[in-house]
């Protein structure tokens, strides 16, 4: 009996899944807009980049707040949110290079930031409807990136990867569906 219980998770250990589902539900109820989906995937990618640049997995959780603050400050000061996040990403890369962070994770996260966030931003700048679909695809695809890191248990804490999977997949999928049905 004890052997069977060793492989099971406690109910309390599912908090990242509950938090991710709550965040996705909130965004779905509030209305799925191209900018919001693009911001979500861009901030998510910046969390991974921050953890790689600073060499601390827990930094990814702090990156959720930091990326959100960067977006808010950018918009309040009249700067486009994506420009603020771009500057933030460059600063993270420079910090990673200056502190001689492990090049493999830093490079991978830098490319991922450029790919996921870049795709979402380009989509939003092109057309609201097409942008919603493209940002949705970028966000849903990011769930695969989350799963890869969850499975390998590297760069970010598993709890953050779980949170992101449960946020990214339903919200990204909903964005794609809404882009083609509204």
Automatic annotation (TrEMBL):
<keyword id="KW-1133">Transmembrane helix</keyword>
<feature type="transmembrane region" description="Helical">
    <location>
        <begin position="36"/>
        <end position="53"/>
    </location>
</feature>
<keyword id="KW-0812">Transmembrane</keyword>
<feature type="transmembrane region" description="Helical">
    <location>
        <begin position="80"/>
        <end position="98"/>
    </location>
</feature>
<feature type="transmembrane region" description="Helical">
    <location>
        <begin position="160"/>
        <end position="180"/>
    </location>
</feature>
<feature type="transmembrane region" description="Helical">
    <location>
        <begin position="12"/>
        <end position="30"/>
    </location>
</feature>
<protein>
    <submittedName>
        <fullName>Uncharacterized protein</fullName>
    </submittedName>
</protein>
<keyword id="KW-0472">Membrane</keyword>
<feature type="transmembrane region" description="Helical">
    <location>
        <begin position="110"/>
        <end position="126"/>
    </location>
</feature>
């Amino acid at each position: 009996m004890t052997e069977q219980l060793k492989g099971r998770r406690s109910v309390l250990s599912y908090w990242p899944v509950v938090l991710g589902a709550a965040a996705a539900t909130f965004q779905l109820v509030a209305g799925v807009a191209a900018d919001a989906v693009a911001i979500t995937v861009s901030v998510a990618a910046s969390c991974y980049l921050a953890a790689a640049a600073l060499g601390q997995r827990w930094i990814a959780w702090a990156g959720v707040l930091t990326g959100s603050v960067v977006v808010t400050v950018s918009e309040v000061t009249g700067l486009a949110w994506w420009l603020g996040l771009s500057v933030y990403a460059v600063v993270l890369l420079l910090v990673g290079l200056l502190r001689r962070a492990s090049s493999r994770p830093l490079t991978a996260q830098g490319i991922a930031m450029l790919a996921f966030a870049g795709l979402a931003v380009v989509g939003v700048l092109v057309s609201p409807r097409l942008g919603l679909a493209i940002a949705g695809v970028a966000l849903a695809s990011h769930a695969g990136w989350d799963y890869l890191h969850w499975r390998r248990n590297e760069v970010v804490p598993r709890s953050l990867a779980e949170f992101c999977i449960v946020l990214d997949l339903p919200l990204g999928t909903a964005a794609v569906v809404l882009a083609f049905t509204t």
